[in-house]
Design goal:
about 240 residues; alpha/beta; Rossmann fold; eight-stranded mixed β-sheet; 8 strands; about 40% helix; binds NADP nicotinamide-adenine-dinucleotide phosphate
Length: about 240
């Protein structure tokens, strides 16, 4: 059985990814920073649950020990993410208002959290026969898209979230080069109705998870170091 950990899987895209990978016969660990929310989600799906706050070394280390004791890890999906620049009124905090504090809080989860989890689970992944990492990025990570006036991403004015996801893309390519035996890719789910965007997204979670689920099941001779949405390769 393929053992798969999804961070931030108590709701949203992570939860739906867990549902689909369980259907594909993976043993799925739902990572949840809140034990109660995680327990409820895991019960609903028939998943396992690990308490995992990507911003907390001790929590991540404890999750490694639990999963190691169970037999190891094959697939890591770095899905936990925040978009703190969307205010409650759905106005985006752009260059005129962005602060170092907002950048730091966003990077704490989306960037440092991704590296913390990757670093901690590397020994387990290196022991897997077919290790896979999926980093959940965003279309807003693409410098090409954000600078192309005809692209919908051009109109997006936020700084912290896109910058954090561009960093996730860079982390993806550097890890992919360093570990050629692993399949390590970044994916863009598309604008999906979840709490992250106050449920203003236009896709369903089923549509949004399509590329996450596909890349979680990538063949050992499939792509690595790439950036994909459901339609194919995206420009960096
Ligand atoms: P969501 O429904 O808000 O889910 C985010 C998940 O991340 C929640 O489970 C949340 O847990 C968890 N999380 C946040 N901070 C965490 C931390 N420090 N440690 C562990 N878990 C943490 O949003 P979503 O749309 O499903 O987002 C999933 C991923 O997709 C994110 O990386 C996001 O950037 C990316 N994405 C989303 C869209 C979109 O349109 N929705 C588009 C492109 C990319 P709590 O319940 O405890 O808060």
């Amino acid at each position: 059985m393929t053992a798969t950990l999804i961070t931030g899987a108590n709701k949203g895209l992570g939860f739906e990814t867990a549902r689909q990978l369980i259907a594909a016969r993976h043993t799925v660990y739902i990572g949840s920073r809140d034990t109660e929310r995680g327990r409820r989600a895991a019960e609903q799906l028939g998943a396992r649950m690990v308490q995992l706050d990507v911003t907390d070394d001790a929590s991540v280390e404890a999750a490694v020990k639990t999963i190691e004791a169970d037999g190891g890890l094959d697939v890591l999906i770095n899905n936990a993410g925040v978009a703190k620049e969307w205010r409650d009124d759905n106005v985006v905090i752009g260059p005129a208002e962005v602060t170092a504090d907002l950048m730091r809080k966003t990077f704490e989860t989306n960037v440092f959290g991704t590296v913390r989890v990757l670093h901690a689970f590397l020994p387990l992944l290196r022991r897997s026969a077919a290790p896979v990492v999926v980093n959940v990025s965003s279309g807003l990570a693409s410098l090409t898209r954000v600078t192309t006036p005809s692209d919908p991403a051009y109109a997006y004015s936020g700084v912290a979230y896109p910058a954090s996801k561009s960093a996730v893309n860079m982390i993806t390519v550097q890890f992919a080069k360093a570990f050629p035996n692993m399949r390590i890719n970044a994916v863009e789910p598309g604008f999906t109705k979840t709490d992250l965007n106050g449920n203003t997204g236009i896709q369903t979670v089923e549509q949004g998870t399509e590329i996450i689920v596909r890349m979680a099941q990538v063949d050992p001779d499939g792509p690595t170091g790439g950036y994909f949405d459901a339609e194919g390769t995206l420009p960096w």
